[in-house]
Write a structure and sequence with these properties.
19 helices
């Protein structure tokens, strides 16, 4: 319920300056320091605002407990402000391994804290404190692993220069975060807390593959494409490889999760969460488009087309809100299908503008990734009927059998059809093994 307030506040703190630092060609130390000082001051201001307005937000949800929860969580804004610029520094330097190590360790620490506190009956506070501890650990690791050490120097001209592009990215991200979290806001207001719980569980599980893939895309694609913005041919070739590689991976993952959704949820979360299954399956369809939208939107952003990037996001999310408002008339399921249709149209919008920028339009993309979708769908149907025919009672065994069959069939047929997506990952793994063996 409170996530939308923290997430949107974090977007204001970044202010798009992190993206501006990555996209800018000739960056200076004063640019980094100016962005750091701006983020720190703004985070303190927004944290105070959330602290003061917490009672009104709790009143909106009619849950008094949210007052103290939000006030404690507001400290996350200040903690996160110490991460934005060092992360941008490492991303610009393409040091993704360092960022990954930091993220994994911080996430593990937060998970351990959450489990320990939950087992000791801390309730919702187990999530609050684990999140705070995880973020603090992430900051400590980031500053120890990054060579970036800002001074407290501030330059007004530098801020204006960075904000000319970063400001548009910020407004685009605000629109994106509001849209992403508005579903939970609507459900929390119009339906029961149980309904919100089922939806939140389905969404959070779906975000493990879809959100993780999208995060990786944004983290890697944006700095990589930004470095190629003056070389149109290399930009085009690398973007096509990104589209093919993400489709080859995301389509089968989402279809497989749809097929095994019921035994998967019952095994991990027990029968109590069975009502989350249909939500999860629809959200997996949404996730397919979400990953494609993410990689397509990086084109205008990497080329420094801030106004266009903002306009694309605005159009996509206006359409999305319209579909959600129409769908909500038919309940939560209707709202989720509205999200799927809005994602499809958002994908079309992104592809349309990319065709203007790099001449890589809808039909070219369908030609490149359509086979991955069809193959994923066909194997998914066979796997579904196989699961029904076998009648396996154990959820664990059912997941293992169906998952193994799906993955094997997908890889074998991809090999026989000589799909380029498989070759891309084969070359990556082969080159990685060579570098490990050689040194």
């Amino acid at each position: 319920m409170l996530n939308i307030f923290i997430v949107v506040s974090n977007v204001f703190i970044d202010g798009g300056l992190g993206a501006a630092l990555i996209q800018k060609k000739n960056i200076t130390d004063i640019d980094y320091s100016t962005a750091f000082c701006w983020n720190l001051v703004l985070s303190i201001l927004l944290s105070v605002i959330l602290f003061i307005t917490a009672p009104k937000i709790a009143e909106f949800y009619k849950m008094p407990i949210l007052v103290n929860v939000l006030r404690v969580q507001s400290s996350l804004l200040i903690i996160n402000s110490f991460s934005v610029i060092p992360t941008s520094f490492l991303m610009k330097a393409m040091r993704f391994k360092t960022l990954a190590i930091r993220y994994i360790i911080a996430a593990l620490i937060g998970t351990v804290i959450a489990v320990i506190l939950a087992l000791n009956n801390f309730g919702v506070w187990s999530l609050v404190w684990s999140n705070i501890v995880s973020k603090i650990a992430g900051v400590v690791l980031l500053w120890s692993l990054s060579p970036f050490k800002p001074s407290l120097k501030f330059n007004k001209k530098s801020l204006i220069s960075l904000f000319s592009f970063g400001g548009l990215v910020m407004f685009s991200n605000i629109i994106e975060k509001l849209y992403t979290n508005i579903q939970a806001l609507i459900i929390g207001r119009l339906f029961s807390a149980d309904d919100l719980g089922y939806y939140s569980k389905a969404y959070s599980v779906q975000q493990i593959p879809a959100g993780s893939l999208s995060t990786v895309i944004s983290s890697v694609a944006f700095p990589a494409l930004s470095s190629l913005q003056e070389n149109k041919n290399s930009f085009y070739r690398n973007f096509v490889i990104m589209i093919k590689s993400i489709a080859f991976l995301s389509f089968p993952i989402m279809v497989l999760l749809i097929v095994i959704a019921q035994p998967f949820f019952v095994l991990l979360f027990t029968e109590k969460w069975i009502d989350s299954v249909p939500y999860f399956q629809i959200l997996c369809l949404y996730g397919m488009f979400f990953t494609l939208i993410t990689v397509n939107n990086n084109v205008s952003k990497a080329l420094g087309k801030g106004k266009l990037f903002f306009c694309i996001k605005l159009i996509e999310r206006i359409i999305g809100i319209i579909f959600i408002l129409i769908g909500i008339r038919f309940g939560i399921i209707g709202m989720l299908w509205g999200m799927v249709f809005s994602a499809f149209f958002s994908y079309l919008i992104g592809v349309f503008f990319n065709n203007q920028l790099i001449q890589y339009g809808f039909w070219k993309q369908i030609k490149d990734i359509g086979s991955y979708f069809l193959l994923s769908l066909m194997i998914g149907l066979v796997t579904y009927y196989l699961g029904s025919a076998l009648g396996i009672s154990s959820n664990f065994i059912k997941i293992i059998v169906l998952g193994s069959f799906y993955i094997t069939a997908y890889l074998v047929i991809s090999y026989l059809l000589k799909m380029e997506g498989l070759k891309i990952y084969y070359d990556i793994i082969k080159n990685k093994l060579k570098s490990v063996l050689n040194g």
